[in-house]
């Protein structure tokens, strides 16, 4: 009969209990839920870095997220109401998370280098596997290594695997659940249908017949080239033979 007098349990109740018990904050991680175009993103932080990020649509419950985090990192994730590190909310909102500290100690050294390269892909743009491989500055790794690293991404959205394509320009979408990757791309202004059309036509680069520079198709400079001045290329060697120079911003020669 007194249920109507019972206040709801605050989301950060467990965290308050730990604080009052004097448990040091370095003994556990905290996590918050932040909005994205693909649904809520659960982001855990600890020791000044992101330790995990998972789209809620791929996780059935908060308990499942907490259990998965503990299994993967060996640390408890305690729900909070405020982000544990500065800049996190802005990074999620803008897609500009490259300089946000993210711990990659739960993946191999090779995968960490690959995921670090993925972080260099700007918002609103796509980069092929070959470009990612070049950015790692490692020898002896392949596209299969890139795909494996994407699957083991510990910080979904913050490490933007939705911006990675195969070498023809087709988005890989190996890590984000369901249509999440497409929703994230659409929110960033990436036209996936156009990317697929270019891939089908064998167009991997776009040149400008005014500047004589060629770019990756989603490079900001390529998107400013008007229709009559757009020159498609399927290979960087073809562009060079035609007298075009690679863009110094998107570095298409790396692809």
Report the principal-axis shape. Answer: elongated
Q: What integer value in Å does the Rg equal?
A: 21 Å
What structural class should be given to the helix and strand makeup?
alpha/beta
Major sheet details? 4 strands, mixed
Secondary structure tally: strands: 10
Q: How many angstroms separate the termini? A: 68 Å
Strand order of the largest sheet: 3-2-1-4
Individual helix count: 10
Name the average pLDDT: 92
Helix and strand element order: HEEEHEHHEHHEHHEEHEHE
Strand content: 15-25%
- Indicate the percent of residues in helices: 25-40%
Total number of domains: 3
Poorly predicted spans: none
Which key terms come to mind for this protein?
255 residues; DNA Methylphosphotriester Repair Domain; 10 helices; alpha/beta; Arc Repressor Mutant, subunit A; 3 domains; four-stranded mixed beta sheet
